[in-house]
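User: Cell wall-binding protein, Lysinibacillus odysseyi 34hs-1 = NBRC 100172:
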Amino acid sequence: MNQARRDIGVQYKNVTPERLREYIYEVNKGRYGDPLGPTYEYLKANGKTDAQIIQSASRPNPDVDKLLSGFEKWLKEQ
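Assistant: Predicted structure for Cell wall-binding protein:
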């Protein structure tokens, strides 16, 4: 299931405008060490239970606005 969810994430990111996609990958890599976001192993290593991982996987990121707030600055620096 973890791989299926990551595959869906790739599909959605592939329809995201390229520069925004690059930004998202860079932010994720900085936060989690992986451009697609936290892996199952990362979450387990950071104390999440399987139930917590399943629950959070069913919700969108509540901080999308915060995540994207740095995009304009990042884009200008490129």
